[in-house]
Design goal:
The protein is mainly alpha-helical. It is built from seven helices and five strands; from the N terminus they run αβααααβββαβα.
């Protein structure tokens, strides 16, 4: 069944616009603190997952943009990254099953450095125009799980007040769009909207 993603992609792109605007505002107000610049790839080694709608968006534009040998090379990079991520998540799950505190396990996972398969040899993103929201806001203060986070390379000073992008709110909106999408297509996989996947899996999956 061919699915028309247009309406859902437009809703997703409205969230992208909000993220880009928030980044631009903070960068304009605190140019000395936002260190993002061409060639900086710190956020391209962060380990995070995508909601269904964002995974579909990445997958769609990846398949639209890449074919042939170039696509095959990126698929292979995605396979390598996905195997690494699987091992990390498997080890984290084992630790929690053995009684390790979940918060500490998540902190350890957050310190892992996995190279994004879309990061090319020139430290540029091969799908930059369609990159995830997490990549777009990485260099400004974020609220995640009720806690403040900043890029380790930024110049934001601990204890000072800055405009903060609410990642939790965006996450909830992404999940809502995903849930509506799954309901509309009447998928038998009713929990599909709840599944979060790394970018590597979003590239590899045949949706």
């Amino acid at each position: 069944m061919k699915i028309d993603f247009t309406r859902y992609f437009k809703r997703y792109e409205s969230l992208v616009a909000k993220a880009d605007k928030a980044f631009a505002v903070v960068k304009e107000q605190f140019p000395e603190a936002v260190k993002c610049a061409p060639g900086c790839a710190d956020c391209c080694y962060a380990l995070f997952d995508l909601s269904l709608i964002e995974a579909l968006y990445i997958n769609y534009h990846f398949n639209q943009q890449y074919t042939g040998a170039e696509r095959d090379a990126l698929i292979e990079k995605a396979n390598v990254a996905d195997r690494q991520i699987y091992k990390i998540k498997k080890s984290a799950f084992k630790s929690t099953q053995e009684g390790a505190e979940e918060t500490k396990v998540l902190e350890e996972v957050g310190r892992e450095r996995i190279r994004c398969p879309l990061l090319n040899d020139n430290d540029r993103c091969d799908l930059y125009e369609y990159r995830p929201i997490a990549c777009r806001v990485y260099g400004i203060p974020l609220a995640i799980g009720g806690k403040g986070h900043t890029c380790g390379l930024s110049g934001f000073v601990q204890g000072r007040n800055y405009p903060t992008f609410n990642q939790d709110l965006i996450h909830d909106q992404l999940m809502a769009i995903s849930a509506e999408f799954v309901q509309e297509i009447q998928s038998r996989h009713v929990r599909m909207a709840d599944v979060l996947v790394p970018l590597s899996m979003a590239v590899l999956t045949d949706y």
